[in-house]
Write a structure and sequence with these properties.
- With 109 residues, the protein is mostly beta strands.
- Helices cover 4% and strands 70% of the residues.
- A hairpin with a 5-residue loop joins strand 1 and strand 2.
């Protein structure tokens, strides 16, 4: 599966802000799912001031499903994100912003 999305918002002062994302998943086996997401945004709300600045992220992750009952699977997963911020955001976010997340999901089939 894959999704490509794009949006544009026009502010009352005529400034345009854009956002886009691409995400995809790959299931090499019925119990494993690999996924990736890339996103970017241009906004004047990222930092103080009224300049439109761009930021983005690339996330990579995987989920391992376990059959727990008839019709139910429990998934354990995680992802790691590489974040890209404007140079002026170095102070609040650091030189090398990264993120990680673990999660649990319950699926019915």
């Amino acid at each position: 599966a894959a999704t490509l999305a794009y949006g544009r918002k026009y502010l009352s002062d005529g400034v345009a802000e854009d956002a886009a994302l691409l995400e995809t998943e790959f299931k090499p086996t019925p119990l494993w799912t690999l996924f990736a997401r890339a996103e970017t945004i241009a906004s004047n709300e990222l930092m103080p001031g009224h300049d439109v600045r761009r930021a983005g992220a690339v996330s990579l992750g995987l989920v391992r499903d376990f059959r727990v009952a008839d019709g139910f699977k429990l998934g354990l997963g995680g992802l790691y994100a590489f974040n890209f911020t404007p140079a002026s955001a170095t102070a609040p976010y650091g030189d090398n912003p990264r993120g990680a997340m673990a999660f649990v999901r319950l699926l019915t089939d």
